[in-house]
Amino acid sequence: MTDERRYDDEEVSRLLARAAQRAEQAEQEREQQGEPKAIVPAGLTLAQVQEIASSVGIPADAVQHAAASVARGDLVPTTVRMAFGIPYGVARQIEVPRMLTDVEWDRVVIRLRETFVAEGRSTREGSIRQWRNGNLRVMLEPTATGSRIRMSTVRGDANIRTQLGLGALALSGTTAAIFSFTPGLTARNWGGVVMIGVMGAAMLVRNVLALPRWAKTRAQQMEALSAEVGEIVEGRG
Length: 237
Fold this sequence. Notes:
6-stranded antiparallel β-sheet; 3 domains
């Protein structure tokens, strides 16, 4: 059994930070002395990452799968479209290192139907394939290095409802300001103003409460589908 010094996670972090700082200082000293700057390729190759991982007990295939997920774009956040601070659309794309076969695309469609609980409609135009259900659209398209799956959906009524709600509140506020300088108005006149304001507020509250949950659910579904596509491509799903 060796008595070689071992470092815990925090010590490794500090050690690497100190080593990087020292390397940067050494590079600056060489530049000040007029020595040519060393040209070193940025980053690490997959083989180098696997070698480092193996030294801490992480299998090479686990690193390979992680690298594939990075290439798919799993670390890229899902895009959430906003209007007046309220989400109304969600989109995500998956990069695939090759074109999907017909069978693989059919399996993706099956996953889509199961995830969104919708039959949808599949179409094909040349090498471009699409599955659509209402405003939810998933498209497979070729790229220079393989293929890409684009997923997007919007709540078609969300933006309209937000604009109508804001408009109703603005109308109610403007009318109330005018009425405040108009003598002889009855409760019935004011009742209409209040009703318009209440309707506008109700539309906004509905969006504020419902749409963030909807957007979060759709984002989670799309992220799960990204991982499932990876399993299909790798022959594990």
